[in-house]
Structures are given as C-alpha cells and as structure tokens.
Give the backbone structure.
Amino acid sequence: MSETPNPLLHTAVSLAASDVPVLPLRRGKVPFGNCPSCTGNACGGRPNMKTPGSCQCPDVCHAWAAATTDTAVLTSPAWEAAWRQAVAVAYHPGGAGLTVVDLDNADAITWARTTLPATLTVPTTRGEHWIYRGVMRSVNAVRAGVDIKSRMAYARWLGRGIGAATALPDAVRALAVKDPAAPRGASQGLTVPLRGHEGECRHRTPVFLERGISMAEQRIMGARSAVHATVYRTFLAVLSTHGRCGCLTDAHVNRLFTAAQAKGETVRHCTDAWTNALTTLGLRRV
C-alpha cells in the first residue's frame, strides 16, 4: 500500500479487527464489479459464499461476498487500487451476526419508533439504520421506506451510532414473511422460492437448471450498456422457463442478484426488476 494514510482503509482494518467483514464501495456507493477472470462466474465460485466452486481471485470481486476480516487481504496490492477509488466502506451485516433495518425517510423512522424495540441507531443521509444482534435473510421494501439487510447484503459503515444493539425481535423477522401493503414495484422478498404453481417440472436433472442460471449470469455480466434493461429481460427469461415448477431456490435467485449488483445495480433495482418480471408473467403472489 502507499505510505499516504488512507482513512477508509484505516476504518476498514479497525472494523475487521472487531470481526466485521468489510469491503470498499466505489463511486455511486456500490461494490466493485468482477474482474475479467471472474466475469460470468468463469472462476467457478465466489469467496465467502456457501456455493459450489472455489475462487482464488485476489481482487475486490463478487459484490458483498468480497467482504473480509483478513487484514492481509484488505491491505494487499490487489486491493490497493480499489481503496484509492473507494468513496466509502461497507460491511456484511450477516457476516458480523447483525441485521440492519434501513429506514429511508421520516415516516419510516416514526413507524419504527412506535413498532420496534429500541436498539443501536446510526443516522444516515436520509434516515436511520437500526441495528440488531441476530441474522436473517435480506429483504428489500418490506414496507414503504424500509429495507432489511443481513445475509447476502451490504450496508454502508456510517459510524458507531447511539445506544447498544439489542436482540433481533420477532417483529423484524415477521417483516420478511408477511405480505404487507407496499407501493407498486416492491418485492415480497428477494429470495422467496417460487413454489406451488401448476405445471410439469421440466428439470429432469440439475444440469438443465444450472445451465440456465449460468447462461443468465453470463448475459448480465456481458452487458456493456442498457444494464437495467438487460437485467429485467434476463430475469423475465429465467422466470418464464423455471418459474412455475418450483425448481428455483434462494441460491439461484441470489446468484442472479449478485451478478446484477456486480454490474452496478442496486439491491432495490434488482428487487424491482424481479418483481416486475413476476407480475408480467402472472407469478407474483397476491
């Protein structure tokens, strides 16, 4: 690393020493994209993810899954350029044993104060992060202005906050399984397997589905322009083929979301595209 102190790297190393997995965010406050060697999942897997394959890439690849507590990795030459370009530090809440309730506006904060138990609170640009001890799946737009970030997600590090983190309450867990009234385009959850739809299963072997998901990842990662449109069309194609027989799992959906985020899409954009595809095909639960 350069001899010039990097305040973001200093923060990242300090967090890593407290067993908080961290990663740099680039302009737009999004993760760095995959390197050429890992494009289209050519590397065979992603670091820190419990999926088949093993990636030895030393670069800041694979979106949230690049988060690490390894100081040697954080300060390595392979990450030096990323820290020079970084605009913020992010962390993987699930990897730190935490869940972040992201409150995006004043109305969401008012709702939380009257509904959820008090906990560690961190001010954000537009609202607050309420941080609880415990891990759950990440779900976007569980209600207006409220996202849940825990497993397979990242949150910006915005300081230590006020108060102490309390145990993850059932009221937050319930948000991930309920179907609350939500604005158009909000998702019931970004990792809900599609089951219970009629239709004969076409996937006689796992190879058929795996090939389809891999091709979808490659299509997203190969997009050089119109990324939003490419992500939506890819989601639509996957759901039209695999969405009615119950073969899609959480892992498959998150692979698609990870590929999209590696191209610069936000979790919100991914969720909206997935929900719109479900609605177009008549698969969205009501």
Remarks:
- The mean pLDDT is 81.
